[in-house]
Q: What sequence folds into this?
């Protein structure tokens, strides 16, 4: 190996080793993981995905409920091409947990300006919690292409 080749090789190998250590460190000591499915909805035989979702709790009763003082849960459905419920109202400072699934295809679930950013897959449950401290109207967008009217798919989180 020529000199520069050797330098390049060890520099690259060193970077890989550093990144691997960093990955191990955040996984083990900081408990940071890739988001995984929070649950599954498996259709019974002869049942399609939509029927399975609509008959499985809590998705048979979508909506927003207060689960503890200052804590809310929004059980939501994503479908071509809207979210249900399409308007959520919570007081400022409240912590909101989104529990979402899709009844048809893959959708996105993204609120700009927050860290709420998920994929919503049919058959899987996606969960994210966020505290809305500032009052205002937050737009919830689908950011996975899901068909002809993908660009119209949105909902609103109104923080009063
Ligand atoms: Cu739903 Cu794009």
A:
């Amino acid at each position: 190996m020529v000199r520069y080749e050797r330098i390049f090789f060890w520099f690259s190998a060193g970077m890989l080793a550093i990144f691997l250590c960093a990955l191990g460190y955040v996984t083990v000591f900081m408990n940071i993981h890739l988001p995984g499915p929070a649950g599954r909805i498996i259709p019974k035989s002869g049942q399609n995905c939509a029927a399975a979702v609509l008959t499985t709790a809590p998705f048979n009763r979508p909506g927003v409920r207060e689960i503890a003082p200052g804590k809310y849960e929004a059980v939501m459905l994503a479908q071509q091409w809207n979210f249900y419920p399409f308007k959520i109202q919570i007081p400022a400072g409240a912590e909101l947990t989104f529990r979402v699934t899709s009844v048809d295809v893959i959708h996105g679930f993204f609120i700009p300006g927050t860290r709420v950013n998920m994929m919503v897959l049919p058959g899987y449950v996606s969960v994210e919690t966020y505290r809305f401290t500032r009052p205002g109207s937050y737009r919830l967008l689908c950011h996975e292409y899901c068909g002809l009217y993908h660009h119209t798919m949105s909902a609103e989180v109104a923080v009063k």
About this structure: The helical segments are 3-28, 49-54.
